[in-house]
Amino acid sequence: MKETVEFLANHGYWLLSGAVLGRQACLPVPANLLLVAAGALAHRGELHFASILASAVLTFILADLAWYEAGRRWGDRTLHLLCGFSRDPAATVRRATTAFSRHGVRTLVISKFVIGVDAVAAPLTGAAGVSPAKFVMFDCAGATLWSASYAALGYVFSDQLDRVAVHVVRMGAVLGGLAAAAAAIYCAERIARGLRFVRQFALERISPEELYRRLSAGDDILLLDLQGHPGSKNGEAPAIPGAIRIDPRKLELYKDVEISPSRDVVLYCASPGEFISARVALALRQKGIVRVRPLAGGLRGWQTRGFPITMQVSLPSGLAVSS
Predict the structure, then answer these.
(1) What is the pTM for the complete model shown?
(2) Helices (H), 44-131
């Protein structure tokens, strides 16, 4: 234990910065316990309290600025990435967005004390268009409050330093093992489900020839064009005549286009790989729409066969499932 304490004393600032950086990278690093240990060492004169706070706060700001910029540039995509391990990423993003809209940039002051909120507070601030200066000011206040709270706790209870150091080591090992096991299980389950889903839809795709034949015959088919995201330039991208263009990343926001569970739905996107179509098809199936298929080859496959396209495409504000 003496060696552990000496190690913390000799490398305290670097360890602290690394722990905070890992925490902000969503890794299971016990940065709070390291701050407690650092505060106890400051009481013993082996570290400087002001330097502890400076190291932690500066690292927080640098890491959060990266997430802020990611949110400013990519918006919801960053939030879905951060919330991807939750059971319902879309609902998690929606709850976080609602909380931020209620409290605004002030959320940054207390976000580091709330598990889950801290992960999305910085990118939400960037996506909301808050100025960098205002972001840094509130983020600095929150980082200082969080860091000072734990460091002060260690400073007051410095006589328990050995016990704190033991918990730092044990907690890091336990959390690391649990996180690795959970990540492995999660990845294995997602990969297996994805492979099953891809194989299933490889068999259930509709060919451009069949779609053209059925549309020409007047069959009741709902065509969903999945190019309705900012990078697609929306209305400037070509579409299959009669298609409705939606943003595949915001499926839960659509309310005014009703889909009967018995209606045939065909999805397509610009990519011939059909990955986006498969993901949206899965989401629709979970909502009770069972007769949904992606277009083989996507829009490109349709165009290469010389089938008609149009620049006139519907852009609804909503999508709903009828009973």
Answers:
(1) 0.51
(2) 49-74, 76-82, 89-103, 107-110, 117-127
